[in-house]
Amino acid sequence: MAKSKSPKAILFDIGGVCVLSPLEAIATYENKNSIPSNWINYAISRSAPNGSWQKLERGEIKMDEEFFRSFNGDLRNEKLWKEFHESFRNSKKKLKDVANPTQLGDHVSLKAEAEDSRPTDQDRGAQQPQEPRHEGSAKHGGSPDRPSLSKLAKDTTIGDPVSLESEDVAQSPNNSSAPTTEQEQSKSSSSPSPAEATSTLVSLPPLPDIDGESLFWSMMAHSRSPDPYVFPALLQLKKLPVRERPILAALSNTVIFPPGHPYNRLNDAPESDPRGQFDVFMASAEVGLRKPDPEIYRLAVEKLDKLDKEKGGSGVKAEDCVFLDDIGENLKTAKAMGMYTIKVVLGKTWRAVKELEQVTGLSLMDEKTRRSKL
Predict the structure, then answer these.
(1) Directed axis angle between helix 212-222 and helix 23-32, to 10°?
(2) Pairwise CA distance, residues 250 & 9, whole Å
(3) Whole-angstrom Cα distance, residue 69 to residue 311?
(4) In whole angstroms, what separates CA 335 from the centre of its chain?
(5) pLDDT tens-digit profile of 235-248?
(6) What are 271-314's pLDDT values in tens digits?
(7) What is the value of pTM for the model shown?
């Protein structure tokens, strides 16, 4: 959809877009429990396609004791733990091979944010400040001189495949001569034997002791708080007369809480709950599909098309839609189908609102916020 064309529908992701990103809850848990940064995201993503998290988001399993036992198992996978540490030893490994973000749900989006995308005090809004991290320290199970995944991925976001080539390429001086036989023998004798090399690779710190159930509920609780910029923009859209605004839809990888759980109910103040603001709500656990599977996007467009025609419109096609998400792979699928996509960046969500204003021609920020961001 061209920017000059007014959209007929706007689709919002939920976690990391309309509400605070559970990524922050994961980072807090890792900090608090001295767990290497990104291990939790790595373990969940590499458990796909049939990990407990993916099954829960497709509605294939219930959120019960068996789920939490399986989730704990995914977080204590010894094979993945070894791969996780070895990935940092190979600086030429592509980031997209380290963790596949398409297997993650909205609640556990693995990102290596660019330095200029870190939230400032002003950008945090309702977000709580976090403790400083000491990347790569022995405390976190890494080497003091080994860069973290986020530093390796500087200037990129997972979801857009980026090759991380090592910059530590040894260069010989122009006037250096070829090594002598004695030098070659010395070099050979100093190299570790295959047995020694194998011993080094398998010499890993113990697996972190993660309470999967406690982690899960901390993520869910954190994502109950509205985003300070995108959610008010959604409310502004909702206030407009139905015939004067686009159809509002949610397209989110979600879970189903147990019967009677308080999270099944709307908040006491409906205006503070995103679920009450949409004309169409497409939840992965209810339809058995997850983003970025193209089928869930097609299903969402079908529902939008039907609703628009019921209201006397001419129907909705993918190119009539704007889609906001915080995961690159989810946006790529939408873009390939013809949707106009807006990337929502952690700590800079106001930028997405400004772009949405440009696309719709509507004012979606209050003046105080607008002045602070111009």
Answers:
(1) 140
(2) 10
(3) 47
(4) 18
(5) 999 999 999 999 99
(6) 778 889 999 999 999 999 999 999 999 999 999 999 999 999 99
(7) 0.71
